[in-house]
Amino acid sequence: MLANFYKKIIMLFMKDYTLSKEQIRILRRAHKRERNKGNADRIKAIYSLAVGYSISQVADILMVDQSTLRNYHASYTSGGILELLKAKYHGSECRLSEAQLS
């Protein structure tokens, strides 16, 4: 009885990473065509979560933080593969003077 209670609590906190067969097929095709290693890893992350791997397993395999995977999933959920692969990380402003740059 208590075990069922805990199981329900755990399920409330778990993300639903399931995708349709069509979405999984599109991910597989996009991964096959992707030449950028970082983008390919992002696609693999979403695919792996969708086919049943836990977030901790995927994080260990891809050597990324679980929070990174959650960010990937949020990006994919909000805009699909295009949003997932969008470059969101920009470097800081240049600290060199004009003289140093020339």
Mean pLDDT: 86
- Radius of gyration (Å): 18 Å
Number of β-strand runs = 0
Structural class call reads: mainly alpha
Q: N-to-C terminal Cα separation, in Å?
A: 73 Å
Describe the global form.
Answer: elongated
Describe the structure.
The protein has 102 residues and is an all-alpha fold. The chain has a domain at 16-85. It has helices spanning 2-13, 21-33, 37-50, 55-62, 66-85, 98-101. Helix 2 (21-33) packs antiparallel against helix 3 (37-50), helix 3 runs antiparallel to helix 4 (55-62) and helix 3 (37-50) packs across helix 5 (66-85). It is elongated, with a radius of gyration of 18 Å.
Summarize the structure.
The protein has 6 helices and no strands. The chain has 102 residues and is an all-alpha fold.
Which short descriptors sum up this protein?
102 residues; mainly alpha
Give me the secondary-structure topology.
Layout: H1 2-13, H2 21-33, H3 37-50, H4 55-62, H5 66-85, H6 98-101
Helix pairs in contact: 2-3, 3-4, 3-5, 4-5
